[in-house]
Amino acid sequence: MNLLNNLKDFFDKNYLKSGPVLLALSGGSDSRCLFELLKKIKDQAGIELHIAHVDHSWRQVSEKEAESLKKEIEEIGLPFHFKKLKILKENNIEEYFRNERYSFFKSLFEKHKFEALILAHHKDDLVETILKRLFEGSNLYNIHPMKEVSFLESIKIFRPLLNVSKKDILKYLHENNIAYFSDLTNEDTKYLRARMRKEIVPYLNEKFQKKIDDNLVALSSNSYELNEYLSKKTSKFLKNLKKNKFGVFLDCNEIKEIVEVKYILKKISLAEDIDLSRDILNKMTSFLLEKKANQKILLKNATIYIDRGCFFIINDIYDKEEKRRLLKNFKFGPWELKVTNVKKIDSPSSWRDFFSKSLTLYVPEGKYNAVFQKKDKRLKKLFENKKVPAFLRNTLPVLYDEKSMPYDFLSGKNINKNFKQFLKIEVILK
Predict the structure, then answer these.
(1) Most buried of the four, 29, 65, 202, 422, by CB within 10 Å?
(2) pLDDT attached to residue 315
């Protein structure tokens, strides 16, 4: 493979020239190869190139390597951005490094308005990650770990070497007599990545007696296509998702296919940073499709309810007051209650609006008390008939008139419109 032509084709296809680009340069073989190739095409391709280097402070020689790179980059007149990380006692040091690198790159993007971050991931990295996801039991639509062009939140990522093998990279460096840094931790098989590279993938190639790389890459492409299909197929349902500080709500009653339910649940949980095990995902899917009522699932960092085909993530609900108040403008928890005199009324809110910014109730003009957490058989029967989820029933006050007739925000019950004056009561999320 001609690596130079491969890189030219990538930038001709993907580079919009809307701003400079930032290369993450460790100085190892992969990023060194990409850097040398970029130097050769940058002027012709109109690329404004910046270099970023992160010293993880992991090896004794890392500080000298950083100084060497800084000197080299500045001598050829390219902007050099540097970040030195502190070694902390973290349970997952790789995740800590990854988060710190992203934070560094994000700050540079905000300052310099880069079009893209260029990373030197190659075909072997892709194959290793695909295998890792397969062995971990990832869903079929989630075995596409990397794309040539993708986004990490607001940062566009370029991976121009993703169709290039490690063998071709090393060959290019050798033929052009290009030196690079060697990180021995990448060869230490106590780390999973090194075991994949040094032991597992070679073993599979040998025992299977076929080159598995291209087949795994094809599988990854199929996975991506499946993910795109499911994303389009489920987008109409996700448009109805409601979210506020109390949590998340989605009515899943129109979703009939198991794979679509699972895809939506995984997508929501990922967005909310919730870890779902395979067993929990299967249980939730079953509860939703079987229309189970009031099913509570306690996770490490979330409380989930499934109720008659509806899905809820519930954050800590505020402490409800237990006293009676005369109806007037007042605040309780994160809500503000507002009272207005009106002559015409619209449809009242219901429990489905709990995850919106406000709920509205209309009552005949008169004197009312706002009461929290009162046991009332009439309300219990009404809530059951209107299928109000049990865990929401005590979250808002109930209004009682002078004859102790209750009016609530959750049932959606309409009132008699043959009155001349009404009170419009809104509870508004602050």
Answers:
(1) 29
(2) 86
